Amino acid sequence: MASATWRYRGDPEAERPAALVRFANGKLQRPDSLRFTVYRNRDTAHPRKKHRRILVSETERLCYVGHNFGNEVMKCNSLCRYFVGVLDKSSGQMEVYNAEIFNMQPLLSDNPLPDDTRDYQTKSYREKMDLCIEAFGTSKQKRALSSRRMNAVGNDIVSTAVTKAAASIIDAKGVTALVQDVAQDDVQNISAFLPPCHEDADRPEHVYKFEDILSPAEYEALRVPAAPLASITTEELAKRAEERSHCSFVLEELKFLPTDEKSRDHKARCLWFLDTLIKFSHMKVIKKKHPMGPECPHIISRKLMKNFSSLTYNNGSIQNLISASMRAKITAYVIALALHINNFQTDLTVLQNDMKLQESRILDIAKALRLRVSKAKEGPGLENDQNHKLGTLSLPLPTQKAPEGQRKRRKMN
């Protein structure tokens, strides 16, 4: 081996160390024909950005780009130092310079670094920012950019597919048929949350059977919590009305409890459960295991959570909430129970106020229950400034119609 003296010319703090390159997709057949261009970050005051470099090379077929920062940087640059030695054969001396390795990746793009900047000037601010993120952005910024572009493509595809599908359906069925289908769907959506309806019943009390609202075990469990209502005095009723301990419907019905002990106990249990349903409907998100308090029997609490709430996943945990569809279901069961309490005719307006619903909503549910709706005559307990609506369950049942909101829909051209 020929001996040679060498002299270190590198500076550890040098701004421009020598560049060593390796190509990720193989070896070059004619490396001497390549020319390289180095781009550096303009922010020379920043301690890290001033060392950032982009090395670009172009062959007849591909363009190659290498970085000394970001995801594509080789880890060996941070683990050890590299040097390049230049040997002067005449003097036998070698000069050694600092170096860093660039991993050259093929860039599959039509025009990665155009010489003509006219294209760049016509780009929007967002497009220019995207180009900057591609070149100098952090890993997090590049992932966000890629995700946004993927979402934009996905939204365009979905929008185009939906538009084509809607156009084909309209051409096939026609606008009038579609409007009728929507009205029928609304009827079916409400019907899915109604108590079981026995259309072939021979008596009103058999249309919505009491056992479908409260099972025998649930009815028996109401004996203890409903006992104070069965034995309530006039003074206690006045105090509860002042404190608004119960809804208006329950407070009004407590004034007319039967004298017969068995009938009185039955009505008290029904009123207690109806009041609990209405209070439960006012909740949005149920965070407690026993939302109605310790006095509520376990079997009733489980019935409320299972039959009248929806499960949702939020902040890493499963929660129960009262959705709009569940409120409609609660309203249907409240009306059905009120019919059993009031000899199958009940004041819908009082229930509407207690449940904080719009009149059109409770009327839609009442008609879905096959009730006949009529205006109530003025009498005790009715407010003169509000037209009360009565719902009556009678046989034969009226035919089911589309909700009022659909019949009033403006005709589409």
Topology (elements, then pairings):
Blueprint: E1 5-8, E2 18-23, E3 36-40, E4 53-58, E5 63-67, H1 76-79, E6 82-88, E7 93-107, H2 118-121, H3 125-136, H4 139-173, H5 175-191, H6 210-213, H7 216-221, H8 223-230, H9 234-243, H10 248-253, H11 261-281, E8 285-286, H12 298-307, E9 310-314, E10 317-321, H13 324-341, E11 345-347, H14 348-355, H15 359-368, E12 372-375, E13 389-392, H16 404-407
Parallel strand pairs: 1-7, 2-7
Antiparallel strand pairs: 3-4, 4-5, 5-7, 6-7, 8-10, 9-10, 11-13, 12-13
Helix pairs in contact: 8-11, 11-13, 13-15
Family: Belongs to the eukaryotic RPA49/POLR1E RNA polymerase subunit family.
Region (Disordered): 378-413
GO molecular function: DNA binding
Notes on the protein architecture:
This protein has 413 residues and is an alpha+beta fold. The chain is 43% helix and 17% strand. The protein has 16 helices and 13 strands. It is found in: Nucleus, Nucleolus. This is RNA polymerase I subunit E. Residues 378-413 are annotated as: Disordered.
How would you summarize this macromolecular structure in one to three sentences?
This protein has 413 residues and is α+β, with helices and mostly antiparallel strands. 43% of the residues lie in helices and 17% in strands. It has three domains: 5-107; 124-190, no CATH class; 195-376 and 388-392, no CATH class.
